[in-house]
Amino acid sequence: MGKQLFSPGEKNKALDRVDGRLKVTGAAKYSAEYQIPGLTYGVLVTSTITKGRIKNIETKAAERAPGVLAVISHVNSIKVPGFADNEHPTEPPTGGRPLRAFHNDRVYFNGQPVAIVVANSFERATYAASLVKLQYDKEEHTTDFEANTGKAVLPAQAKKNTDNPLNDYNRGEADAYKTAAVKIEAEYVQPAEMHNPMELQSIIALWEAGDKLTIYDKVQGTKPTQNAFAKEWKIPLENVKVISKFVGGAFGNGLHNWPHESAAIIAAKQVKRPVKVVITREQMFTMVGYRPRTWQKIGIGATPDGKLVGITHEAIGQTSSYEEFTESTLQQTRMMYAAPNVSTRYRILPLDVSTPIWMRGPGEATGAFALESAVDELAHALHLDPIEFRLKNYTETDPEKNLPWSTKFLKECFTTGAEKIGWSKRKMEPGTVKAGEWLVGYGMGVGTFGAHRGTAAVRAKLSADGNLLMQCAVTDIGPGTGTAMVQVAATALGMAPEKITFDLGNSDYPMAGNQGGSSTVNTVGSAVQAACKALKQKLKDLATKKEAAFGTADADNIIIKDGKLSLTDNSSVSIAISDLFKQNNLPEIEVTEESKPGEEANKYSKYSFSIHFAEVHVHPKTGQIRVKKVVTCADAGTIISWKTAANQMIGGVTGGIGMALTEDAVMDHRYGRYVTKDLADYHVPVHADVPPIDVWFVNKPDYIVDPIGTKGLGEIAIIGVAPAIANAIFNATGKRIREVPITPDKIII
Ligand code: MOS
Questions:
Q1: Tens digit of pLDDT for each residue in 147-158?
Q2: Pocket test for ligand 1, best of 251, 288, 329, 520 (most atoms within 8 A of CB)
Q3: Bridge partner residues of 212 (DSSP)
Q4: Residue spans per domain, the chain
C-alpha cells in the first residue's frame, strides 16, 4: 500500500490497532459466529417478480424436507405488533418504516423476502428454500429512473416542514448563473452503488423469554437497534439486548434495520429456537440498501476574471415506493464557495425498488462529483488553474448560514496536496503530458462533511492492578474506534495504552448512538475524556487524604503511571494505586460520565474538509484508465489515532476509485432486477486498481466541535475523490465524462 504521510514526530506515537491481533488471527467474533445452544438456520426465499401480490405459496415439499422446522410466510407468520402501526401511511411514506417482513401478500421489489425456511442446518435450510414455489398476481412495475424523472417529488419531510434543508434553497437571485459572462450547464449521473462490505449482513435472534429478545447483529449502533426492535415488538427497551462486538465493514447499511433481521426474529419466536440468518452475497445487492441512483444538473457561471456569479444545482435521487429515503446531495454546493447567488432543488423519485440507504459520504459524495466536476470545467473555460479558481472563490465564513467556521484550514490542503502530487507538472491543455503511449492527467476535488457531535456516555473502571476498563454501547465498523478511544484515555490520564481496554458493541453499556456521519470520535471521544477527568477527580480526592500535595494540584498535572498516581510537576509526590484502593477499602473505582454538545457550538458552522489530488494515466487506444497516485489531504481537526485515521482516508479513496471507475449496479428493467449481483460483475477496487495513496492531515484542533479537538474524517475520505479522478481524466484526454463509472468505452467513443 501507499506511503502514509504524517506530521513530523507523530508517526512514532501512533498506536497499532488494539484489536488487530484478534482480527488477523480469526479470534474476533462476528455476529454470525456465536455458538448458541440449539441454534437453527434461516434461509430466505425471495420474490421473482417486482410488483404485485402473492397468489399462492406452496410450502409442503419444503416442510417435508429433512431437518426443516418451519416455513414462514405472510400466510402463517405471527403478527408483529409494531407492524400494524402506520398501516395506511400518507403517500409517499416517510422514512424510518422499513419493509415489514411477511406482513402481507404485497411485493414491492424484486428479491424481496417472501418466506423464511428454518432448518437444523444451513445446507438443509438452503435446499428446502429451493422447494418453496410461489405464484403471483403480477402488476406493471416502474423501475426505470430515466424514463420517470418527471414523477420526482419534493420529499414529504420537506413538505411538512419548511425549515427542513431538503427544501428548495435560494441565496441571492435564483438561477443567476445564467447572467454570467462565462458559464456552463451540464448533467451528471451517479448509478446505484451496492453496499459490499466483506462481512455479509447477518443476525442471530434468540428469545430468552416471551418478551425478552437478544440479538447478535451486524449493525452500526446497538442502542438504535435496541430501540427499533423494542418498538417493533412493543416490548420494554431493556428487554432487548443487542450485541455487535465486531463488524466486518459497514459503510452506512448498518444504520437501518432490514427485513432479514425481522425475519430472523419472527422465525426465532415461531420455532422457539435461536435462528441465524446470514444473507447471501446476491442478497446484499437487493435488500440491504445502496447509494441511490441520482441525476443532477448544474449551471454555474463566473465573471471573466473568475469570480463566481451563481450556481444552480438540482438533484433527483431514487427511493422505494414504501419508504422515503433522502440525503444531503446539495449541501456542499450551498456552503463551499463564495458565490453570491446559489439555488438548489432536491427531489426524490419513488420506484418499485428496495429502499436505498446512506453509503459513505452519503449525498455529499454524489453531489461533490457534480459540483467539483463543474468547477473544474468552468475553470478550464476561464483558462484558470483549478486551484487558482477555487482560491479566488474561497470563503472565510459560511455563506449559507452566515456564521464563522469553527475552524477551516483548507488552504493548507491546497498547498500541501499540490506539492505532493506534483501539480506543477500539470499542463492546462489536455493531452499534452505523456508517458510513453499513455496520456497523463492531474485532477483534484474538494470534499466537506458536517462535523457532528451527539450524546454519549462512557463507564470507566480502574482496578487495583492499575488496569482501566472502559465501556460504551458504540460499535466499531472498522475505523478502529477502540484504538482511538484508548488513545484518548491514554492522553487524558497520562497512562500507558497497554493498560487500557475499551469494550464496546453491547446495548447494556452506556449510551452511544450510531457509528455514522463521521461523528464517533467527536462524540464518544469526548465522553471518554469526561470519564477520565471524573476518574482523576475521584483519585485526587482519595489521594489528598494521604498526601496533601494532591489537594492543591491541578487535575491536568495528575497522571496514572506505572501503577501510581503521580504529579507531572512534582516527581517526589506519588501514591501506588493499589495502596490507595487498600487504604480506602475499594476493590475498584468506577465512574460513568455523559458528554454532549453545548449551546456555544451553535454560533459556528462546523465542517471537516478534504482535498484529493489524483494523477491518472489513460491509454488513448484502449481507453484503459490507471490511477497512478492519489494524495489526500484532510482538515479533520486533531488526529487522535494516526494509523487508523490514515487507514480511513485510504479506504475512502479506494471507495472513491470504485465510484469513479468501476461500481455500477445495472438493472434489467424488463424484469426490474439487478443483473450485477456478485463481485465478478460488480467490481469494487482491488489492489491492482489502487495506487499508492499519500495521506496528509492538517492536524489543527477544533475545540468548538468538541473538547478533544476532532472534526471527523470517515466521509471526507471519499467525498471529492470521484471528481478528482474525472478531472484528471479530462486533463489527460480532453474528455469530460459526467456519468460514472468512467469505463473505457466512454473514453474511446
Ligand atoms: Mo456512514 S454513510 O454515516 O456509515
A1: 999 999 999 999
A2: 251
A3: 209
A4: 1-10+405-452+599-749, 34-140+198-249+254-284, 148-195+293-399, 454-596
